[in-house]
Amino acid sequence: MSQTVNLDRPVRVRFAPSPTGGLHIGGVRTALYNYAFAKKHQGKFLIRIEDTDQNRFIEGAESYIFEALRWLGLNADESPEVGGSFAPYRQSERKTMYRQYAEQLVASGNAYYAFDTAEELENMRKELEKAGAKNLSYNALTRTNMTNSLTLSPEETKKRIEAGDNYVIRIKIPKKEDIRFFDIVRGWVNVHSSTLDDKVLMKSDGMPTYHLANVVDDYLMEISHVIRGEEWLPSAPLHVFLYQSFGWVDKMPQFAHLPLLLNPDGQGKLSKRKAAEYGFPIFPLDWYEKEKNITIDGFREKGYLPEAINNFLALLGWHTSSDEEVFSLEHLIESFDLERIGKAGVRFEIKKAEWFNQYYIRLKTNEQLLQYLKETLSNLKVNTDFDDEKLLKICNLMRDRITFPQDIYLEAKYLFEVPTQYDAKAITKNWQGEGLAFVDFCQNNLSTLKNNWEGENIKHHLHEWVEQNGYKMGKVMPALRLAVSGVSGGADLGMIMEIIGFENVLQRIEIAKKTIVITN
Length: 520
Known about the structure:
By secondary structure, this protein is mostly helical. 44% of the residues lie in helices and 10% in strands. The protein contains 22 helices and 13 strands. It has a 3-stranded antiparallel β-sheet. The chain has a two-stranded parallel sheet with strand order 1-2. Strand 8 (225-229), helix 7 (236-246) and strand 9 (254-258) form a beta-alpha-beta unit. It is elongated.
């Protein structure tokens, strides 16, 4: 580990989502990186709910966030759910403590009261537009012409406050000053104060804005490292200035701003619209949008395994020196290093997520796959007289052919029901001549295998019959498969016949001979 990551104090990191909707998969990656970093250094992983924006608050969003993180195994050491010595962990429950810090900044000359009405603010913007100004914000230049405690006398300011006039508290950004800080991912960042505006710290309703609450909470909760998305990089200079204004520089956390997740085409930040266009989820779990009365698919409900999602997300911006690809959560924790996170945006390649899902499904035991299959059968209300022994055989037969758990049934559907339709191309190609003759031969001779109806024995005799009768394998086996399953390809035919059962195989051959003749 180089010296750019400071580990001089106990590692305490936080994931701080807002309960304003479904948890974006980019947020999940942020949580994963925070979790891995904390556990790597025997630190603490906090979840803090940043719900200061009550206008955007959505009922159920907070519980959704916790359910999603539990599904992925990213359990917090401190949170609204589990508590902790720095409680409360909801910003709305910490409301009373923020004002004293805002007032502290006013007293030190680093913030001020602003009484401007919405109309006055709009007029300011219009005047700036007329003058051709590029920066239309409330800043060191424009505040001198506005209604605030910097332009009003102390007596007038006090009078307005006591009279109950609406006001906000704004940070007082200096006119000409460099704000410099180190970012673990991006190196040194230098921003001139003239590019910043006097952000509101305390709103007129008494609620703090994200900027004030975020910095105060990180300080009070002794956060050592702030690991968050690139979209927060423009806010970082303001946050650094707040630490300086409070005199908390020695307790300021190190920053690491993660690269953007890009749409699969590389154009723009990963969006819900693009995800829908490409046909993949953008939320970890199903999310119900009440206003539109629609449910947006989640990765869990689509059949992705949590270990596959963690592995996939881990590599979207981070890599090891050996360029390994497969990481359990435990292995990720051992290997994780903030300095191996890149700056460049990363395409969201869903095919790679599918590959990981296939990989982790193949690590499951047949007994574990059986539970998935039973769940699918229950959800689809599929009636079957197959016992667990046969269902386990189906799982074993299909395990290397599936991407998602529900695919076990979808790939093996023909095992559960007699075909009502048959592959048209296979009919044209195989349901004639040698193929049809072999199906007849099998129908007349399968009874000799009845007492030893096992996949390997069936397969052996089928091949033997092909040789004895001078048939060509590629001509006749597809015809038998078509009769038994209705499709032209699939798993081992001997095992298919074993699972379906002797009587049912004969029945299917008889039905196929009648049905296919009729449809042709």
